[in-house]
Here is the input.
Amino acid sequence: LGNELERADKGFMGLLKGMTMTNTDRVNLMNRSVVEYRPCDIDAFFDSSRGVYNALISGGNPRLRTSAMVAQTLCAANNGFPVVVIHEGNHFLEQQLRNNFSSTKVFK
Here is the structure.
């Protein structure tokens, strides 16, 4: 997995996909308003120089979900946003947050 976001509709694979799609497929793809990316680390979705006002992370693999929450928390805290994490007994998440914030006054 890479560290950077790379759109799935760019590059050689995007060119091949574009050549084989019908006009209806293209219209449907645009109407979905969904951007697909090639596989990458979840951290790539959170720019460390910008905070996000709010995020809801749900579903999927528990480890990936935890990685996303920790990345978002770090990003928001580094940019001065208040962070509240609501979860139900996710001890792995608690451990990861402690590991990242134990030397600061941020984690309670």
